[in-house]
Design brief:
This protein is of the alpha/beta class. 17% of the residues lie in helices and 33% in strands. The strands form 2 sheets. A 4-stranded mixed beta sheet has the order 1-4-3-2. Strands 5-8-7-6 form a 4-stranded mixed beta sheet, with helices on one face. Strand 6 and strand 7 form a beta hairpin. The radius of gyration is 16 Å and the shape is globular.
Amino acid sequence: MSESVPFQLERIDHVVLRARNSDALVSFYRDVLGCPVEREAVDLGLVQLRAGASLIDVIAVDGPLGRAGGAAPRSAGAQNLDHVCLRVSPFEPAVLSAHLRRHGAEPSAVRHVYGAEGRGPSIYVDDPEGNTVELKGPAEPGSRIG
């Protein structure tokens, strides 16, 4: 723990995605990536999905929470998020890629990038709103810095 920060960060708790079509986005995270719906607040335009120890919140841009964020995300130009990284296990690239393609999503080639556990393999895919999702495999032993 740093002298100037009186706490230690543990992990990503949740990510909030603003959606033009929240049904399609919820379907992607639930049906394609296996995140079960944990809670819905219809009056707020909010659906919370469980992603392991974390949550992915989907808010409709035309709902009370979504309107507070301004204009809807665009298909071209700036997005509200660069990407979300989800640690997956087992990480079997051929199986993951085939599964994503069956659901109409085009996965990237496997890339080896640095993540919370160290350097390891990842596959990238875009969700229906154009947000990039990184599916992260296990880190290579000894690759974590610090």
